[in-house]
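Severity: low
Component: inverse-folding endpoint
Summary: output formatting inconsistent between runs
Steps to reproduce: submit the following structure tokens with default settings.
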């Protein structure tokens, strides 16, 4: 299986307009290091899914998945509202939760196979 793509991350996050491709690629590259560090090989069938989830978390954690709530022209003012998939103040996000659940399943399956 291959690594995830910018298009796959965009689709998962609902398009995230206003976020440049290089920012998404950086989140994907960082996610690859985390996934590999958690013991999942690039050749694993679930690598792409885990990398996509962690890239989504990275983007949410940096607040890149926000919508503009209001704008002003005079004196230039802009405010944002958090949208689905944005990390909480504790650093958690729905994408990190999915990543952890999937990772636990993979490791438990590996333990069962190793025991037999």
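Observed output (run 2 of 3):
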């Amino acid at each position: 299986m291959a690594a995830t793509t910018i298009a796959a991350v965009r689709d998962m996050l609902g398009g995230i307009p206003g976020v440049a491709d290089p920012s998404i690629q950086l989140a994907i590259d960082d996610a690859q290091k985390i996934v590999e560090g958690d013991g999942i090989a690039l050749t694993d069938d679930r690598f792409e899914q885990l990398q996509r989830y962690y890239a989504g978390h990275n983007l949410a954690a940096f607040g890149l998945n926000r919508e503009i709530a209001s704008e002003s022209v005079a004196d230039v003012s802009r405010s944002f509202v958090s949208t689905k998939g944005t990390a909480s103040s504790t650093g958690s996000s729905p994408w990190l939760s999915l990543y952890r659940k999937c990772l636990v399943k993979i490791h438990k399956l590996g333990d069962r196979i190793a025991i037999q």
